[in-house]
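Renewal narrative, Specific Aim 1. Our central claim is that a sequence can be written position by position from structural information alone. The example that follows is taken directly from our test logs and has not been curated for this report. It begins with the structure tokens describing the chain, in the order in which they were read.
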């Protein structure tokens, strides 16, 4: 089971995400992107979208710093472990709370407003639900576990395991002793990667390079 959870599942999920995204782009180009529902409901969309996207960007940045940069680099720079965990708790916790609140608003919006719900697909609900679960578990680990139980040093376990995945030699033993909350968070993240190409999340790969130089859309009143 450990071999499946920490080796097979991650590679299977990443393979599904990459191959599925390429297939969808090549053979279903008209379905690529994220359908806008702003015309159906705007009051909940704006705060939910802003909280989610800005919070998620900060969360991703924090994961890059914590998982991809070895702990030895921080020690070489003179950054003490106490200072690192304090910044991670405050900044990471705030970003996690914002992203979780935003995803909750977006999910509730699709459930509460009839017009939005009727124009939503199963994939929309699956993507938002998984995003909420992933973000809520990660935020709980940072805000609750690290302050009630004590800061967990994931830079000596999850970090090397993640870098091992990237270099094709993951070590299952590194995941032994990882808090169960953090383990579920990681497994949920790879489940999200697996459904990625079958939902609106594929729009993440679209880079709006021509957006700044495109001609403005003119709106004129009937009068």
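The sequence written for that structure reads:
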């Amino acid at each position: 089971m450990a071999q499946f959870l920490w080796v097979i599942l991650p590679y299977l999920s990443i393979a599904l995400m990459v191959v599925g995204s390429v297939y969808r782009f090549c053979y279903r180009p008209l379905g690529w992107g994220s359908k806008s529902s702003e015309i159906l409901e705007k009051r909940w969309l704006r705060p939910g979208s802003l909280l989610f996207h800005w919070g998620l960007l900060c969360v991703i940045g924090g994961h890059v710093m914590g998982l991809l940069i070895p702990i030895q680099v921080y020690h070489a720079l003179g950054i003490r472990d106490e200072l690192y965990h304090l910044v991670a708790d405050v900044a990471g916790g705030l970003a996690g709370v914002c992203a979780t609140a935003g995803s909750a608003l977006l999910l509730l919006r699709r459930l509460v407003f009839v017009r939005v719900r009727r124009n939503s697909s199963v994939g929309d609900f699956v993507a938002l639900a998984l995003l909420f679960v992933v973000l809520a578990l990660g935020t709980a680990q940072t805000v609750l576990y690290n302050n009630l139980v004590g800061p967990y040093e994931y830079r000596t376990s999850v970090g090397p395991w993640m870098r091992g995945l990237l270099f094709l030699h993951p070590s299952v033993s590194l995941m032994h002793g990882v808090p169960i909350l953090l383990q579920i968070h990681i497994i949920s993240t790879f489940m999200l990667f697996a459904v990625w190409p079958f939902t609106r999340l594929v729009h993440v790969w679209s880079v709006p390079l021509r957006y700044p130089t495109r001609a403005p859309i003119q709106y004129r009143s009937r009068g």
